[in-house]
Structures are given as structure tokens and as C-alpha cells.
């Protein structure tokens, strides 16, 4: 793909991103025209509009932007590091680790729901650490197969524990079921702001890893010939991916298919596997998918909502199947 075509694809992605951001602020159970949104931002409109826009929808939109970008970039890193097209943040048990930690905090410890963000972050990071430790415990070191198996084991155990805790405590199940389905509702600036420095560091790390991952895609022997250390590259990419995915889980709960499908969409649009290009486009498309699903969920069942995680699964699954069929037809 030529430079002009890549710029065109990137431009369309930016337009789509701006569109869903505006829609996320304006659309909901109470729809507001853009002029009223702008008035609420400037503080010149009635109090109700100002409250809806500044206290509810803007923090929710920012959380969707951050979580969507983190999940998509995490998926790119995991797929590149493992050379596994089905790799995603769920591969390392991050989503199930975050969900289990929230259930423990609410059901067993009786902590308020406000601690769910930090419980999810710690739980997701701990689960990923256990999966990485298991994957690197053998004599052969880290390998894609060991990583997949380790992640599957950790996810299965955590999912079973989570279901057991919810079955034993119906009150806790009601408190966390909405979050476990994956939702941006109820997010506020206090939950998002402390995590932004981690996001910046992780995104910078992913950018630096793009070149080594390109070398790794050629095979371990070729990567060594190009001066790279495959095990070190995989480990660093895994750590950065863990950090990004843990932040996303902390903000939005276990969101399905964003980290899995978006990298495939980016590669299909770019017709390229260069990680730097795929990372940039994925960082824009991830929020488009997540915020788009969140917007649909707000209006599909007014005055209630359908969780974004439910809709990303409905949107992402057929899209991934279509990409797989197209890849098979062209291979």
C-alpha cells in the first residue's frame, strides 16, 4: 500500500474516531444536540445538561477511548510476540483475573464498589504474571504454545473461582454482574486520571517494540541475525501488553473481542503487517469499536442499557469469522 493510501486509511479512522467521540457525548438515554453540548461545556446552559455532559458522558467517553486503545494495542503486541493470530488480552487471563479480584473485593472483603478499578488492575496484572511464570518455567523457556496453555489454565481456574463466589453470594453477584459484563457506565474522572501515566508509558513502550516485533515476525533465526533477542522481545512485549490490558479491564471490565478483532481489521485495511503502522491504526480503531458499541447499548434498550461488552462480542465475532474466511480464500 502506498503512502497516500495509508494516509487515507488513517484519515478515515481519525474521522470515525472523532464522530464516535462526539456521538458518545451527545447521545444517550437523553439525547442532546451538539449546540447544547457545547453550551453545557461552556457552562452557559441549564444545570441538567451541564451535569449530563461534564459529570457523566465525558468521563465515560474518555474511559472508552483509553480502554479501547489499550485493548487494541495490547492485542497487536500479543499477536506479534506469540505469532498467534488468536492471541488477545484474555490469553494471559487478564480479564478473568480482573473480574475475580473485583468479586473478591466486593463479596469477601465487603469493600465499596469504588475500589473495583484498583482491584481489577491488581488482579489482571497478577493473573498475567502467573501465566507468564508458568510459561517460562520449563527448560525451553517462553514459547507460543506454552503461553497459550498457561493462559488457558489460569483463565479456567479464575473463571471457576469467580462463578463459585458469585453462586455463594447473591448480593455480591448483583453488585458486580453489570461490571463483569463489560461496561463504561459509572466511570468518573477520579477512576481514569490516575491510570493515564501508565497508559502513556505503555504506549511509548509498544512504539519502541514495533521494530523488534517486525524482526521477530521473520522467525527467531532471522531475528537473531538482525541483532534481536527473541525471548527478551517476547517478554517485554508481554509485559507492556499486560499493563495495557490491565488498565482496560480496570476501567471497563472484561471487554471481549476488541483486542482480538481490531488488529486483524487494521492489517486488512493497511494490507501490511508492519507493527508500527498496525499499532497506530489499531489505537484509533479500538476506541471506535468500543465507543460505538457503548453508544448502541445506550439507545437500544432505553431507558436501560445493554453493556458494551455484550455488543462488542456480537460485533466482533462475525467480523473475525469474515476475516478468517477471507484469509483462507486468499491463502
Automatic annotation (TrEMBL):
One of its GO terms (molecular function) is transmembrane transporter activity. It is a multi-pass membrane protein. It comes from the Bacteria. The chain crosses the membrane at residues 12-41, 87-108, 115-135, 147-168, 189-210, 235-266, 278-300, 306-325. GO terms for biological process: siderophore-iron import into cell. One of its GO terms (cellular component) is plasma membrane. It holds the Pfam family FecCD. The keyword Transmembrane applies. It is found in: Cell membrane. CDD domains: TM_ABC_iron-siderophores_like. PANTHER family: FE(3+) DICITRATE TRANSPORT SYSTEM PERMEASE PROTEIN FECC-RELATED, FERRIC ENTEROBACTIN TRANSPORT SYSTEM PERMEASE PROTEIN. Belongs to the binding-protein-dependent transport system permease family. FecCD subfamily. This is Iron complex transport system permease protein. It comes from Blastococcus tunisiensis.
Amino acid at each position: 500500500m502506498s503512502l497516500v493510501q495509508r494516509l487515507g486509511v488513517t484519515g478515515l479512522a481519525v474521522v470515525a474516531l472523532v464522530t464516535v467521540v462526539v456521538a458518545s457525548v451527545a447521545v444517550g438515554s437523553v439525547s442532546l444536540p451538539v449546540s447544547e453540548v457545547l453550551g453545557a461545556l461552556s457552562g452557559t446552559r441549564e444545570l441538567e445538561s451541564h451535569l449530563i455532559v461534564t459529570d457523566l458522558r465525558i468521563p465515560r467517553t474518555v474511559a472508552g477511548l483509553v480502554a479501547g486503545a489499550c485493548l487494541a494495542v495490547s492485542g497487536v503486541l500479543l499477536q506479534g510476540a506469540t505469532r498467534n493470530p488468536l492471541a488477545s488480552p484474555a490469553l494471559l487471563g487478564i480479564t478473568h483475573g480482573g473480574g475475580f479480584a473485583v468479586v473478591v473485593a466486593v463479596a469477601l472483603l465487603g469493600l465499596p464498589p469504588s475500589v473495583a478499578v484498583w482491584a481489577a488492575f491488581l488482579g489482571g496484572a497478577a493473573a498475567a504474571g502467573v501465566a507468564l511464570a508458568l510459561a517460562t518455567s520449563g527448560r525451553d523457556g517462553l514459547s507460543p504454545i506454552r503461553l497459550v496453555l498457561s493462559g488457558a489454565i489460569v483463565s479456567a481456574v479464575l473463571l471457576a473461582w469467580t462463578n463459585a463466589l458469585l453462586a455463594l453470594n447473591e448480593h455480591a453477584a448483583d453488585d458486580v454482574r453489570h461490571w463483569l459484563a463489560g461496561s463504561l457506565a459509572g466511570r468518573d474522572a477520579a477512576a481514569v486520571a490516575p491510570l493515564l501515566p501508565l497508559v502513556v508509558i505503555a504506549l511509548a513502550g509498544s512504539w519502541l517494540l514495533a521494530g523488534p516485533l517486525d524482526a521477530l515476525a521473520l522467525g527467531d533465526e532471522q531475528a537473531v541475525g538482525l541483532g534481536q533477542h527473541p525471548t527478551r522481545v517476547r517478554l517485554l512485549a508481554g509485559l507492556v501488553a499486560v499493563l495495557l490490558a490491565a488498565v482496560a479491564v480496570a476501567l471497563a471490565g472484561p471487554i471481549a473481542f476488541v483486542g482480538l478483532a481490531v488488529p486483524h481489521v487494521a492489517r486488512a485495511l493497511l494490507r501490511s503487517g508492519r507493527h508500527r503502522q498496525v499499532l497506530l491504526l489499531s489505537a484509533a480503531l479500538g476506541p471506535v469499536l468500543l465507543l460505538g458499541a457503548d453508544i448502541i447499548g445506550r439507545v437500544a434498550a432505553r431507558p436501560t442499557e445493554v453493556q458494551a461488552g455484550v455488543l462488542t462480542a456480537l460485533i466482533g465475532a462475525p467480523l473475525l469469522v469474515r476475516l478468517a474466511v477471507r484469509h483462507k480464500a486468499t491463502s
